[in-house]
Amino acid sequence: MEVTPTSSWPTLPALPDPATETVIASGLPAELAHAFGGPFHFLLPDAFAANLIAMQDALAEAGVDGFVYYAKKANKAAVFVERAAVGGAGVDVASAAELREALGHGVRGEHLMVTGPAKDPTLLRLAVQHGATVAVDALDELDRVISLALTGRVRPAHVLLRALPATQRHSRFGMDDGELTTALKRCLEAGDSIRMKGFSFHLSGYALQPRADIAARLIDLCLTARLQGLEAGQISLGGGLPVSYTDADSWHTFLETQRPAHYHAGKSFRTGDFYPYHSPTAGSHALAALLATRPQHTDRTLAALVKDAGIQVLLEPGRALLDRAGASVFTVQGVKERDGYRIVTVDGTSLSLSEQWFNSEYLPDPRLIPRAPATASTSTSTSTSTSTSGVFPASVGAATCLESDMLTWRKIAFPHPPRPGDLLLYPNTAGYQMDSNESPFHDLPLPPKVVIDHTDRPRPRWRLDRHFT
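The structure corresponding to this sequence follows.
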């Protein structure tokens, strides 16, 4: 197969990550692929710790009293929960299993935030027993929490009341104004069995202005609740802090040039369904920008408003804490040619790259790691060229019997032809990609998670993650 000019194929290079480069240079991915006999994820907990410190610093620099909860749903690995506990953060959980695991890995009960709609009775009981804060989503749920607190007679239940955003009235999360009024009344009637600590919200999207606007509304709700005799000293801003996977030029060029011909079988995606893989302000910088945003109808920043009201800001980031905290590695099992491009089959499934769940695609370019340098004597059974000019376009399919099971529909512009035994490394996958949708389909085992320590050494150390379930 002839090579193709580089300019023919849109690319989306991931931002440089020295820790991942160190792992690749060490030769560890090939050893682990051999040891496990299948795909695996490696985790970089130092990146998580650095992201957490940066967010805590952003709160301090803005002069805001704040507390960070790691949204555990973004990755099941135990090591990130452990790092959250060590770093003085809490954990946001939405199931009894997540709550138990957080406790088991060192998170104190009062540092747990319990979210999710219509929570399981066991989850609510454990939350009340351990002093976790419950983001109450509906009036019937509030009634159940009050009943548990009255029955237990050990400690009061801690609750935030979740408000329905005015800009997303279709959302299934939160209570409208009338329901909030009733909820405040019931909290007052419950007396000392309930600590109504404030308000929260669930907002889709990554825009900062709408998040600042509803936060200002929650401040007003806190002031109203205080006048009625309730504590109301906290607001939760949720998650929604963007992550930047690539640079601005690459992202905009990709969006302008990509078209169905660049995908296997002419697959097309709506541009609006792609995650925004570049953001001019991301992570802790986005948090700083959010606190510096002026909500509508005020000339004061959000930081100034919460400080003057004496309110603590709570955050529940997931993806933003996991930026550059891990990658996913697959082994090439076979290569075939199709109409000017290759179809690569790897030893895993698209269930380990969960963006397909959203009818979208994980777009940062995977890294091809050859099993050995190409030579003139390399087998030509796949008609591969050893030329180093141009690119070798290939899509990536899974080792299943499903036409739709593609890790990457896009024809990736690889710098050399993929061969069986080569590795494909998908960068920066710790946030939501690794395990949101994984399944042992075809009786294939779930890819193990490997914790990489001491990436500052020429030879990093590794261990298996200690996830309980």
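The first strand starts at residue 40 and ends at 43.
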